[in-house]
């Protein structure tokens, strides 16, 4: 059997995203397991899943479906009279998520959105939304996170046709190689794309050990813009505040903003992160200090 090239799993998985998003958008029965409109809910996760929870929470609440909070599972305040808790996890084995669900079991209805259908979380939650077709071999997440968010968006009544088409186009096009070789990256977002910005920064750190930061777009002006300089990139997901692009360019840094669905722009970032890692001689399928799931010793 031939030896796999560094990042081979991540490459296959990130390129499959238009297909997995389309499948998630069609899972009407699974979407119906998510909390009904009007329910007051919390969404919990760790790492990438926490950032997707932030995006879902903003989208759900602003769409008028009910108060929605997002928490890191280790820091969740779920004893606040929530009607339900949604636990998002690729592996279904993350210690903090399992402990939280076990603690509230029988008191608060729980829905798990899970990649591994054989995981222990499946039997702990009241309802399980299973996405095994989006599960991954690479330690660095790409398609599970975005597929879960695609499922959430579809459940809120969004038409994902444009996002799927944008993602396919992003994967087919060449990107500017200068993006790969920047000294430093700052990722920005507004509203639901703040979570995407945080996730983009995490992806670059995990895959290529890069210097990255992430902020809400307006907060970037309150100090972090001091890091902007020639050879560095400020990457905006979605619409930027008026005047921000000019402010960044005045520092000599490169301001990046693409006129595509922000989730598709995250796919572009996945490509950049993978290529940067490989160019540095790293394997994002087996990143430094990381495993597929964080399982803490008792």
Account of the protein in words:
This protein is of the alpha/beta class and 298 residues long. The chain has two domains: 8-155, Glucose-6-phosphate isomerase like protein, domain 1 (Rossmann fold, 3-Layer(aba) Sandwich), CATH 3.40.50.10490; 161-279, Rossmann fold (3-Layer(aba) Sandwich). It is built from twelve helices and nine strands. It has helices spanning 8-15, 17-25, 28-31, 48-62, 95-104, 121-124, 143-155, 161-172, 193-208, 217-220, 244-250, 262-279, and strands spanning 41-45, 68-72, 84-89, 110-114, 127-130, 184-189, 212-216, 232-237, 254-257. The strands form two sheets. Strands 2-1-3-4-5 form a five-stranded parallel sheet, sandwiched between helices. The protein has a four-stranded parallel sheet with strand order 7-6-8-9, with helices on both faces. Strand 1, helix 4 (48-62) and strand 2 (68-72) form a beta-alpha-beta unit. Helix 4 runs parallel beside helix 7. The longest helix has 18 residues, at 262-279. The mean pLDDT is 95. Residues 29-178 form the SIS domain.
Give me the count of strands. 9
Q: From the alpha-carbon coordinates, what is the Rg to the nearest angstrom? A: 19 Å
Overall pLDDT metric = 95
Question: Which class of the largest domain in CATH terms?
Answer: Alpha Beta
For this structure, what is the CATH homologous superfamily of the largest domain?
A: Glucose-6-phosphate isomerase like protein, domain 1
